[in-house]
Amino acid sequence: MLNDAVLLNDWHVVAYAPDVPEGKPVSVRLLEEDLVLWRAGGQVHAWRDLCVHRGTRLSLGRIEGDTLVCPYHGWTYNTEGRCVRIPAHPGQTPPEKARTMVYQAREKYGWIWVSPGNPTHDIPAFPEWDDASFRKVHCGPYTFKASGPRAIENFLDVTHFPFVHAGYLGDPQFPEVNDYEAEITPEGVIARDITVWQPDPDGSGQGAQVTYTYQVLRPLTAYFVKSSAGPRFAMYFTVTPVAQDTSIAWTYVALDYGDQTEAEIRDFENLITWQDVPIVESQRPELLPLDLQAELHLRSDRTAIAYRRWLRQIGLTFGTA
Ligand code: FES
Ligand SMILES: [Fe+2]
User: Fold this and answer.
1) Could you list the residue range(s) of the whole structural domain that residue 160 is in?
2) 228: pLDDT confidence band, cut at 50, 70 and 90?
3) Same domain membership, residue 105 and residue 164
4) Is 90 exceeded by the pLDDT of residue 42?
5) Residue 159 Cα to ligand 2 middle (Å)
6) How far is the CA of 1 from the centre of ligand 1 (A)?
7) Is 319 inside any structural domain?
8) Which residue among 51, 59, 76, 92 has the greatest number of ligand 1 atoms within 8 angstroms of its CB, and so is best to mutate?
């Protein structure tokens, strides 16, 4: 597993909860390690996807009651990851060492979150989740062949809207961005009052002048809410660090207006994100430079500058240079 203390001691989305049903183990990848997810009595478990006998993938095995059975020689593991049965030696108590590496797993916002270490922070808050006036639409996942911090920085960037998302989130005739401040706090970054004209801010086709508030909640989780005199459109965006150069973005849109169907909202987000993906995948260096002498920064890049500074302050090494 990639050895970045900040990310090891953080929570990461590894799956959409409905994709991890009862009765079927699922294989996912986090920080260059394969994990098996499985459920027993509703509770989800996340382990290293490896049987300690001969290194077989446990995700190829089967769930029996509240045990997971290796497909190769039937070693049977309980929910604590302890081997409790070795079929070739039914009378023998399995050795103490016969146990898998168990990680913390939680289900929140309809996702499975895993922490490989001892999380220093709770799962970042999604303010609209419990607010019934907001509809929540799950979008993605989107795979980027790019580093997690590059994907997050793209999410925070407004000056690309008129170019990458022309006709939707921006208009090349109006590329200017107002002055705004981005504040670094111990908990992340917040940038307020970024106002842009959007020909189609949400897929409804109704143009609006919108004002953004962006927040970096954790190194690989960010959020914005944009509003135009009333209606609010929020987005929660979190990235699985699969490897230094591979990221999976998971997102919810939350909105308190409109009559678009979920499918329409999802189609719009798919369109926008697939416009971003080739741009982010093309960026070199692949790893986000935290030295502000690298690359060029303008006033309009304040959110990105603050993000890079904050990552340096907290000591993130993964996906950065
Ligand atoms: S490899 Fe798993 S039981 Fe032998
Ligand atoms: Fe974009």
Assistant:
1) 135-314
2) confident
3) no
4) yes
5) 9
6) 22
7) no
8) 51
Residue-wise DSSP of 253-289: EEESS----HHHHHHHHHHHHHHHHHHHHH-SSSSBP
Residue 128 within a domain: no
Mean pLDDT over each residue of the chain, to the nearest integer: 97
pTM: 0.97
Minimum-distance ligand 1 atom for the alpha carbon of 70: 2
Query: Residue 278 and residue 4: Cα distance in Å, rounded?
Result: 27
Are residue 142 and residue 278 in the same domain, yes or no?
Answer: yes
pLDDT at 129 over 90: yes
Cα separation, 106 vs 309, in Å, equals 30
Q: What pLDDT digit, counting tens, does each position of 257-287 carry? A: 999 999 999 999 999 999 999 999 999 999 9
Distance CA 305, CA 299 (A): 9
Atom of ligand 1 nearest to the CA of 73: 3
User: Which protein residue's CA is at the shortest distance from atom 3 of ligand 1?
Assistant: 73
